[in-house]
Amino acid sequence: MSRIITIGVAQLGPISRDESRGAAVGRMLALMERAVRRGVTMLVYPELALTTFFPRWFMADQSEIDTFFETEMPSAATRPLFDRARELGMAFTFGYAEKMVIDGRPRRFNASILVSPEGEIVSRYRKIHLPGHFENEPWRAFQHLEKRYFEPGEEPFSVCDMMGGKWAMAICNDRRWPETYRECALRGAEVLTLGYNTPLHYPLAPEHDHLQAFHNHLCMQAGAYANGLWVAASAKAGREENCDLLGQSCIIAPTGEIVAMASTVGDELVCADCDLDRTREIRENIFNFAMHRRPDMYPLLSGATRP
Ligand code: CDT
Fold first, then answer.
1. Domain residue spans of the chain
2. What is the CATH superfamily name and number for domain 4-302?
3. How remote is the CA of residue 45 from the centroid of ligand 1, in Å?
4. Positions marked catalytic
5. Which residues of the chain are under the pLDDT cut of 70?
């Protein structure tokens, strides 16, 4: 049986601070319509796809911060996405700011969900690697307050069976960490989906600003190849509230080759026919984990032993 799945990456251009959820979902729906015409059956949207990237601002008032969070999913605003995708038989994933009450305490996460072609949420992920800082740092051109506004996810990466394949999710900064891909691959993932919001300017090391696009692809191509995974990565791109965000959304084969890439920093769809059996080209050969990997020689990686 063919295991070729046409995956689409739905890059979003900037979302302004006052743009409604309805407007963002409308743009996502327009990309979904384009995707179905191109035979896509699985669509990947960015991190925090429903709002502007709000951690760029310091806000002292929790009720203001909470306006960027979702307390239910699907919600009235996002229901049209679920309904239309179910009609089309299309799976999709997107990121959003999640506020949950757990044991009577409000908890906030940078989250993503995977929705099956039947419209069911089949997997949830809460971002593990939260970048940025906790306190207002006015010297920066803009803030990156993910550490202040979100708690880190408490569940490891997980793998979900869907459409005859094995899917894992990660979010933005996770893609820079080799552990993300290896953990997912060891759990059997064949496709890793990613959404990102990456400013071109990095205040702590501005001498690396010109390397943002290079580092973006470097880590994802290396992660795909060294683990024999497909990677489908979707940016929120363009000049958002005076902050330039990287585009170059892409689909990367298990060989590490980029097979599709966005060429704008606006709403754009790219897609590729992804043969999930191509994971075997790598996993049964150069990175055959069972045959060649030496976990007993990497004791520090488990965290069990300290240097
Ligand atoms: N959203 C996100 O995780 N962005 C970070 C920006 C750099 S760290 C301040 C990233 O890794 O792309």
1. 4-302
2. Carbon-nitrogen hydrolase (3.60.110.10)
3. 16
4. 47, 127, 172
5. 304-307
